[in-house]
Design brief:
alpha/beta; single chain; 9 helices; 37% helix; binds manganese (II) ion; 236 residues; binds phosphoenolpyruvate; eight-stranded parallel barrel
Amino acid sequence: MMSELTIMAGPCAVENREQIRSTAEFLSGLGVKILRGGAFKPRTNPDDFQGLGEEGLKLLRAAADEFGMQVVTEVMDPREIELVSQYADILQVGSRNMHNGPFLKELGRQSKPILLKRGMSATIYEFLQAARYIEKEGNKNIWLCERGVRTFMDETRFTLNLGSIAVLKADSPYPLIVDPSHAAGKSAYVPAMAKGALAAGADGLLIEVHPKPTEALCDKEQALSFEEFSTLMKSL
Ligand code: PEP
Ligand code: MN
């Protein structure tokens, strides 16, 4: 693994102690330094698993601490910024919240780094203006995350455009993380898209990994198994 590459990896959602602990143990063994996992999940269907909330944050923090990792996790609600900040090193803004100006302003008043995901229908201009909402309030510690947008291509969950990676690198001072997992929607496509993203200039990757992908409570089709993830890491 190239040392300058930033890799954020972990399950879509924190599900239980063993799931997140074994993932942290595995990832740290490969040199991954940032553990992801959602405790507050933005699900399309309100009846689907919504995350463990604060209990999930605690499990995530404990797993990361045990293996010397940092934590990135999504905050969905301005009322939960303080709570999530007690456990996270990096605050993730999900695709569905990229357009929420008052929320972005509040995050701009925080001192923790922000991982800002691109809205699934956002233009590059809108994405970069969202970063400005954060920056204008004082927080310049921003990482952009390209996670694909909606197009007429429906064989993948979203469309990851190599051109957008080139443009974001050229037009923004912020580091760019690419998330091939949500863009692909299927684990089989993740490795090719991850490699393409790095070739196009991304500074890092965010990848969903699960100890038992078929049993994942969230985004199971796109999660890499440990074996698939370690093969990908070697090929990078
Ligand atoms: C996630 O990273 O878990 C997530 C929900 O991604 P997005 O906001 O890009 O859909
Ligand atoms: Mn997910």
